[in-house]
Design goal:
With 490 residues, the chain is an alpha/beta fold. It has helices at 8-13, 16-25, 55-60, 78-90, 105-112, 129-136, 152-165, 180-189, 224-228, 261-277, 355-364, 397-406, 420-430, 438-458, 473-476; strands at residues 47-51, 69-74, 100-102, 118-121, 141-145, 169-172, 196-203, 287-294, 304-311, 320-327, 372-377, 381-385, 392-395, 461-466, 469-470.
């Protein structure tokens, strides 16, 4: 294959028709076990393929990968690959060394798996599970952006494969590797704040649509059918100034079968620290309730969700209730006056905010903002803002003083350089587990996030979680999804 940006189109198209024809003749794309065994990389550079080269790959991942060997890029939109080559070039990377470009990751794995050590996946959510499984079955390490998968069944398929393959895995909840996450978890676990009773989570992202925009041609040169993948083919729509972005590369979050709505977009980040602190990977909820919901248009996620999880005591921790609030409050329209083009509420007064949060702010003369997690304990509260907890408030002030005097010991691991991608690469080199590996942490957290998606589709009410399923069959219908032929996840 040709090297460098100028040869991108010929690389992508080389042999593709012959390859796809042969695959079609063989039936569905096989998820076969190639018998590969992963080995630590020691100190050499990791040979990496980038799957999904849109905005998230740009600002969230590429800057931390320039010290490795980027072997391949894969995206059905060649413009995205050109942009990431430009990013690499601006960072001083030799872009001519990127040898392979593909539109279809199934072709990529079939052709060049032997040239790879790892894959970094930042495609839309409906393209998380299949490339991750295909990579693991070839002995490749896998980093996948949040949420881990599009459905709970996909999460479990990925966990099963990670256990079998023994590769290093990491889910992209970047804040987990920051120094604040283990620090706050140690503080909560120490018992110095008293037992945790409730966790209140406020999300200002509204990943929903109240109408389906008119169809328009997809970007020039893009293979739209490949972008749709295993989900039902839908029409592309373009951005409308002031109203919304284009379906690709961002508004996919709004649509069932492609994204996972507001909780899928931000839940992995906002739930991470309290989930970690309270050891919820070691216990399951007993009840999950959808208390309030404002629907979007047909096929869209909702414009408001109020969800509650009840966790019984376990793992040395007390019983706790999680409360999730997103979307616009009752009476506020979801329009460009109140919500910006990527789905963020313009002002907190427009948001669906827990009344309890406002009560605590008034009591302590505090202002917590539009996005974060509030941990309520017997002695006070801890507010952790956004995805990394870099803005933290502990109230009352006397409690903060007591915690400082307690000199709580550091007992939890810290990621190298407090960097999430570096944590993954270090794990690849040493063979240890990454902080958000699929089996022990990333998978259980993803299940909690996606339980919120399930009850949002099942409708208002209380649902009971028993042995990995709901007691109510109406909810179990949304644990998985159907796939177009050739894209099955098993």
């Amino acid at each position: 294959m040709t090297s460098g940006a100028e040869g991108l189109k010929s690389m992508r198209d080389c042999g593709r028709r012959t390859f796809l024809k042969a695959a079609a003749a063989a039936g569905a794309w096989p998820l076969f076990n190639l018998g590969c065994v992963s080995k630590p990389l020691a100190e050499r550079k990791a040979r990496i393929a980038l799957v999904g080269c849109g905005n998230r790959m740009d600002y969230g991942l590429v800057p931390d990968l320039v010290g490795e060997e980027i072997v391949a890029m894969c995206d059905p939109d060649p413009a995205m690959m050109r942009r990431r080559l430009a990013t690499l070039g601006n960072l001083g990377y030799d872009v001519a060394s990127v040898r392979h470009f593909f539109a279809d990751y199934r072709e990529m794995f079939d052709r060049i798996s032997g040239e790879l050590d790892a894959v970094v996946i930042a495609a839309p959510n409906h393209h998380h599970a299949l490339p991750a499984i295909l990579a693991m079955r070839r002995g490749l390490h896998v980093y996948v952006e949040k949420p881990m998968a599009n459905t709970i069944d996909e999460v479990r398929a990925m966990v099963r494969e990670a256990k079998r393959a023994g590769v290093v895995t990491q889910v992209g909840n970047q804040g987990h590797s920051g120094g604040t996450c283990p620090l706050l978890a140690e503080t909560i676990r120490s018992g110095e704040m008293g037992a945790v009773t409730d966790v209140w989570v406020l999300d200002d992202r509204l990943n929903a649509m109240t109408y389906r925009p008119p169809p328009s041609p997809p970007p020039a040169g893009m293979d739209w059918d490949l972008w749709c993948g295993g989900s039902p083919r839908i029409d592309y729509y373009a951005a409308v100034a002031g109203k919304h972005g284009a379906l690709h590369p961002h508004d996919f979050h709004s649509w069932i079968g492609y994204g996972n709505g507001s909780i899928g977009n931000m839940g992995t980040h906002l739930l991470d620290m309290p989930f970690y602190a309270l050891k919820l990977a070691e216990r399951a909820p007993s009840e999950i309730a959808l208390l309030d919901y404002m629907p979007g248009c047909e096929g869209s996620w909702g414009c408001r969700d109020t969800i509650e999880w009840k966790f019984p005591a376990g793992a040395g921790m007390p019983a706790v209730t999680f409360h999730w609030f997103d979307g616009v409050k009752d009476g506020v329209p979801y329009d460009q006056e109140h919500v910006d083009r990527i789905g963020i509420c313009r002002r907190r007064e427009y948001q669906n905010v827990p009344p309890r949060l406002a009560e605590i702010e008034k009591r302590h003369g505090a202002a917590f903002g539009q996005l974060g997690s509030l941990v309520e304990t017997e002695k006070g509260v801890l507010w952790s803002k956004h995805v990394d907890g870099t803005v933290t408030q502990i109230l009352p002030k006397s409690l903060k003083k007591d915690l400082k005097a307690a000199k709580i010991p550091k007992t939890l691991p810290r990621a190298p350089g407090f960097n999430h991608v570096r944590d993954f690469l270090d794990a690849c080199r040493t063979g240890r587990k990454a902080g958000c590996d699929f089996v022990d942490f990333g998978g259980p957290l993803a299940e909690m996030v996606l339980q919120g998606n399930v009850v949002a589709r099942a409708g208002k009410g209380v649902y009971h979680w028993q042995n990995g399923r709901f007691a109510e069959d109406a909810a179990n219908a949304f644990l998985g999804k159907a796939y177009r032929a050739g894209w099955e996840v098993a």
